[in-house]
Amino acid sequence: MKFENRLPDEGINASHDSPLREFAWLVAGSLALLALAVVVVSYGAQWLAPRVPFRYEARLVAGVDFATPPQSQAARAAQAELQALADRLAASMNLPEGMQVRVGFRDEPVVNALATLGGHTVFFRGLIEKLDSEDAVAMVMAHELAHLKHRDPAAALGRGVAVGVLLSVVSAEIGRSAAGDVLTQAGVLTLLSFNRDQERQADEEALRVLAAEYGHLAGAVELFSTFATLQARPPAGTTAVEFLQSHPLTASRTAAVSAWAQSRGVPLTGPVRPLPPALAAIRDKAKRRG
Q: What confidence tens digit (pLDDT) does each residue in 191-201 have?
């Protein structure tokens, strides 16, 4: 018996389907999966957005101005001092990989400070005018950094940003386009607000940072006492105490500070550090105005 290799049949490696049809099915399948992902993200924005790697959120907001660069030398100096404080506190907060905190300063009388997308925080002159120590400013700073750490701004801005973050995985430009008006409105920083659980989590993180940095919680006590006074007697001519609107300072929240300190053996009082020179100048100028 003789064996021999037979030649393969003609066209055995040729597909009976059109390559263009196969490509079309591949593209359609990919788009369908992306559409499904968008739907899932839309309806699970608060849960999913903070879990998307931070680098995509950073790409999404690249080029968005959350705070206009200060025009005066005094404001630039204040921004530099706030940035230095943020860098010092952030070093012990285990922020998301790739997150670089950027602190903006607005020379406006609004009593507010907040965290927004892409690792950005913004402080207003009106807030600095009300505080007497670095410790109190650090309590606010650590609170806002905690929001950044837990990606609360991405979740708070909802479906538009969540979908944009997801699509930024494909293309930063597509992501920004999908986020559309939401990203534009993100510049209107007072739109941001966080729920009670997020605020409680940010408070606890801030207290931990404050205790590690200063050895006591006098800054938190000063801050909450200051805002309690503002709530009771709003300053004449004040049109917006935004911090009080987005961060409800109730008696129970103040009591939570005492409870936290007692459970961990952290003093509520202690020597406080003075405001850095540029911030102190803003505070002193406000005092002279009365």
A: 456 777 888 89
